[in-house]
Amino acid sequence: SPASSSSGNFSQFTPDSATSPHSATSSPQLTAKSQKGREDGMEGVRKAKNRTAFSKEQLQTLHQRFQTQKYLSPQQIRELAAALGLTYKQVKTWFQNRRMKLKRCQKQSLWTERAQWLTESGFQPGTYLDGHPKFHEVYPITTASNIQTMPPSHQHYGAGQ
């Protein structure tokens, strides 16, 4: 998951091999790097990747495609990535992030809509939270010692059956 580093850049620490277009076999280059990490005592620590800065043209194309299609097949992701000069993972991640942004915007819009409707309907938050205006006069809020319990009921149900 993305995490903010001290320099303000976003980093990706976990590879997404499940959806990567490349095979899951390890390359000699990766093996050499992991062995060097073990020698340095840095096993399990991955170098952070910098945040991708998309060009205006790339963003425009991604946005246009998103307008017509929210989800892409792996083949469509590969084709779009090749056309834009991006990696499979960059395009896949951009679409995931854009769908989440749309979801957040829709949720925010729904809350704003509901709040506006409640205001127009005469909803008063204070009235809702306090209950009846005289509620605290009838049921004062004091310490627990003032709470009275109801005497047990002496009525027996089903007696004599």
From TrEMBL:
Q: Specify the DNA-binding region ranges.
A: 47-106
| Domain Homeobox stretches | 45-105
Q: Which segments show compositional bias classed as Polar residues? A: 1-13
> Compositionally biased, Low complexity: which spans?
14-28
Q: Where is this region: Disordered?
A: 1-56
Query: Which top-rank group of organisms is this from?
Result: Eukaryota
Where it sits in the cell: the answer is: Nucleus
What Gene Ontology terms describe what this protein does at the molecular function level?
DNA-binding transcription factor activity, RNA polymerase II-specific; RNA polymerase II cis-regulatory region sequence-specific DNA binding
Residue stretches of biased makeup (Basic and acidic residues): 36-46
Q: Which UniProt keywords apply?
A: DNA-binding, Homeobox, Nucleus
Please state which protein family the record places this protein in.
Belongs to the distal-less homeobox family.
Protein name in UniProt: NANOG protein
